[in-house]
Design goal:
- By secondary structure, the chain is mostly helical.
- It folds into two domains: about 100 residues, no CATH class; about 55 residues.
- It has eleven helices and no strands.
- The chain is extended, with a radius of gyration of 25 Å.
Length: about 210
Amino acid sequence: MNLLQIKLTKPECESIEKPIDPIQKKLVKMIIDGWDNIDIKIYNVKALIDLSKLSVNNENHIYLYNKYFKTMCNNYKVTNKKIKNPKKSDIIKSQDLQIKDCYEYNLIKIIKDIEKEKHVAYNYWTLFKLLEYDIPNLNIIIKEYSLNILKKYTYYSMIPLVVVSSLAGLGILFSISLLFLVSKIIYPWMAMPIVITLVILLLLRLVWQ
């Protein structure tokens, strides 16, 4: 029996050891960096302005919106924002961008499904949660447009909350009243649709009695 030990060659080591997965490398790096910074955040998605490598300012946000997203957003107009022509060097940088790789494109896809009334409640809450993430340099116009969509379809936000509260034994009327108080403090623009729903339910209850 030969018990002689010899050092493995580099090809032999590489063939035996499995390389670390890139995702695992990111996790390890986040753990190391988070030792001194407990609020560390890492995002695998980028905003369009980051993909374009343009300087981050309102003018470039508006330029990219007009170039790539305006038609997709039903020609949503930019309000109270003056538009300056970007530099020629910036225009060259922003040519032929892969917008499907940016975060804003995913938001618009969800908005399109909401407007087509496709799984509206589900897509409404998906859009709501995606906007809560603190994505760096998110396009200001797309964010404004998304918030307007949430306001327009506010009544869909009440469906899951009312159903869950009712199943918990709180009752529909009490659930909506509680939801009204919460929305009045956190999201004032949700208050009026909740009041309307509450009035309708009260009227229906009187009719059924």
